[in-house]
Amino acid sequence: AQSVTQLGSHVSVSEGALVLLRCNYSSSVPPYLFWYVQYPNQGLQLLLKYTSAATLVKGINGFEAEFKKSETSFHLTKPSAHMSDAAEYFCAVSDPGANNLFFGTGTRLTVIP
Amino acid sequence: GAGVSQSPSNKVTEKGKDVELRCDPISGHTALYWYRQSLGQGLEFLIYFQGNSAPDKSGLPSDRFSAERTGGSVSTLTIQRTQQEDSAVYLCASSFLLAGGPGETQYFGPGTRLLVL
Questions:
Q1: Using CA of residue A15, residue A93, residue A39, residue B41, what is the dihedral sign?
Q2: What one-character DSSP code corresponds to residue A80?
Q3: Any CB–CB contact under 8 A between A108 and chain B?
Q4: Would the pLDDT of B103 be above 60?
């Protein structure tokens, strides 16, 4: 069965600092992996996804994530945080051929001016 | 439409009443999904539709929950005899095909915030 663990329910960074949001997954087969962002009172928006092509995936708003099979990780990074990045971030996994996403519990990112 | 829409955006109801939540997927999307987002539970998958069929209903938390989809488009999630633990944000998503396939992305609506008093 698939599962996703997001370490740190809350992360605070200073504006301009590196953003690192951690995601580890468990899956019996190489999965598809996603990062979604949720701004206050809005739905989830896809940031990026890994679908077995390049292991370094670039997404919107300057975010990227690297799939590391040996570490079963898919951490999300951004070199320089902006105030507008403050939101909740969800990592999700789906086995190929599966019909739904399994989400982590989310990480709330706060950006300090 | 431009995106997935859900109505109502907010719903307050009394314990024991029935509620209906509506989802309009992106035009042309064949797959539709319902999730529940509640404090302490994160995002929980409820049910998906491929066309008008729901092959797997095992994610529904109880038999008070049901969902249907008509015309391969609009879906309704119904909760009968609501309980306080049903309070949550109910999210709908759609995708062109089933999730899990290469390139498949689920597009989410803004959600319906349900409060059961």
A1: negative
A2: S
A3: no
A4: no
